[in-house]
Design goal:
With 356 residues, the protein is of the alpha/beta class. The chain contains eleven helices and twelve strands. It binds pyridoxal-5'-phosphate (PLP).
Length: 356
């Protein structure tokens, strides 16, 4: 199995550490560790290694599933990866909704075959008929992020029901990465609650501002969950003990306070980005979460040129749409502290004005 370089990560690696302002982070600003109890006693494994039964039971409840159907992982990235490893082999086909977070396409494409089905700007609707057309007898998975990274589109429950029915009729699985779901003001029921043919992955990195906790999960029927457990023995054995302890508090007694603050923060910053997009006449779609996928301003050949010159002249990092296969766009992450966002938008605006 050969994986291509992860273009977004390579881009960030090149520019992030030297820049004044980072407007390419896709999550909400991080929470300080000292708001949590950090005392875990001895630094051993989480036992059992798929997460504590009490925590798995709490997560399972949210999906109307049983604790056996939940496996805790080192972040959502691992949850997605293990799901692909568990479900796909060389002869299998996946349908991937684009644009998307690269691993959700690159991993299934490295194992088997992939057909991309684009969601449609300006509102990033997903044509379910196009998904139906892309399904083949070998199709094992239909994959998407909801809310989407990078577009911020949050597909409505009717579309998700239609997708689920389509996938179930074809004896495939629907894999939905829902890492941004809890940033919605009123989250829809999660995918795994739709039925046994849907799999949800998620974690605390983005909606909760806890990327350093490295805690995610897969919710899938027992057969798939058990295969995920089998694969996980070869990757990280157990989730991180400290991350597990922090995530229990974040999804427990601290949850409503964290989510209320994060949603209010996202809303206030989103309004600033909407004004910015309007001022510079860039395509703006009201996203759920903290990512906007805007058109590249006139005067630049593509997203990479715009983002590279912005870094060189204003020391601000954005993510070029090229890394998502959309070179006429760029992704702005507006989950950062508001004073940094204000300063960042001023610099981006100055850069655009120089080239008009
Ligand atoms: C859709 C999606 N899934 C997974 C990840 C990685 O998540 P984690 O930090 O929980 O591993 C990201 C990070 O940007 C993402 O956007």
């Amino acid at each position: 199995m050969e994986l291509p370089p992860f273009e977004l990560e390579r881009w960030l690696d090149e520019y992030e550490s030297d820049a004044d302002l980072m407007l390419a982070e896709s999550g909400v600003r991080s929470l300080p560790a000292d708001r949590f109890d950090l005392n875990v006693g001895e630094l051993g494994y989480v036992i059992p290694t798929d997460g504590s039964p009490e925590f798995r039971a709490k997560i399972a409840e949210r999906y109307s599933r049983s604790p056996e159907e939940v496996v805790l992982t080192c972040g959502t990235q691992e949850a997605d990866y293990l799901t692909f490893m568990s479900l796909l082999s060389e002869d299998d086909h996946s349908v991937v909704i684009s644009p998307t977070y690269q691993s959700l396409k690159s991993v299934p494409a490295a194992i088997g075959d992939v057909t991309s089905v684009p969601s449609e700007p300006p509102n990033w609707e997903l044509p379910v008929d196009a998904v139906a057309e892309a399904i083949q007898p070998e199709t094992q998975l239909v994959v998407l992020t909801n809310p989407s990274n990078p577009t911020g589109k949050y597909l409505d429950p009717e579309t998700m029901d239609a997708l689920y029915d389509l996938v179930a009729e074809n004896d495939a699985y629907l894999l939905v990465d829902e890492i941004y779901r809890m940033l919605a003001d009123d989250p829809h029921p999660p995918a795994a609650s739709l039925g046994p043919r849907a799999i949800s992955t998620a974690g605390v990195s983005k909606s909760y501002g806890l990327a350093g906790a490295r805690l995610g999960w897969v919710v899938a029927d027992t057969d798939v969950a058990n295969t995920v457990r089998k694969w996980k023995d070869y990757t990280t054995i157990s989730p991180p003990l400290i991350g597990h302890h922090i995530a229990q508090q974040a999804l427990g007694e601290q949850e409503s306070e964290i989510l209320e603050a994060n949603r209010a923060h996202a809303k206030a910053n989103r309004e600033r980005v909407a004004e910015f997009a309007d001022r510079y006449d860039l395509d703006w779609f009201e996203p759920t979460g903290v990512n906007g996928f805007l058109t590249v301003p006139d005067g630049f050949d593509n997203g990479k040129e715009f983002c590279r010159t912005l870094f060189e002249e204003e020391s601000v990092v954005l993510a070029p749409g090229d890394v998502f296969g959309y070179p006429n766009r760029f992704r702005i992450g507006f989950g950062l502290h508001t004073d940094e966002l204000k300063e960042g938008l001023e610099r981006v605006g100055r850069h655009i004005e120089q080239y008009i």
